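Section 3.1: Structural characterization of target chains.
Under the original work plan, the team committed to producing a structural model for every single-chain target entering the pipeline before any wet-lab resources were allocated. The record below documents one such target. The sequence was received from the expression subgroup and is listed exactly as submitted; it comprises 214 residues.
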Amino acid sequence: MKLGTRGSALALAQARAVAARLRALGADVEIVPMRTEGDRLLEARLATVGGKGLFVREIEEALLEGALDLAVHSLKDLPAELPAGLTLTAYAEREDPRDVLVARSAVDFEGLRAGAVIGTSSPRRRALALALRPDLVVEPIRGNVDTRVRKLESGPWDAVILAAAGLSRLGLKPGHARPLDPAVFVPAVGQGILAVEVRAADRATRAWVDRIDH
């Protein structure tokens, strides 16, 4: 089976985790990294160039064409509606769904100075941050998870907000990382969950993938 994924370090780590579970059952799985439109526009604001679908469109097209048999996605990054002919067949056990404040110094969200610059390109995180702390400045920051952690050290941001699950899957442990209370800083729907997408009519692949559903 050909398993499609984006080529970022996080996406590949997630694909390898799913492939390992399938291989443990006896499946023959080949991971196929793909570059999506979202990867090619990493410096653009998502809201202005097409939103979440930019990260999955090419992968879903390859699924529909039969070039791939399955794909692994972060559930929170999928649009609300799937293309006709595709379905989500399995979900991995949810990891930590919280957001994390990664700062340049040992400070929590409440302790950030007035005027501190927070990096995030998520409209949800921006809205929550400013609702809780209207004295902060929120500026966009694009790039993969590991890239954003590196940018924090040299850019204008005092802190960035990232998903705890992404940091965990990459084995990243930034020095000044503090989880945000999910009762106050509400995570995205599906955050921390991996979803496996297949063709609805592909019963052979679905039979394998059904066996790893949590």
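Residues 2-94+193-210 form a domain with the D-Maltodextrin-Binding Protein; domain 2 fold (CATH 3.40.190.10).
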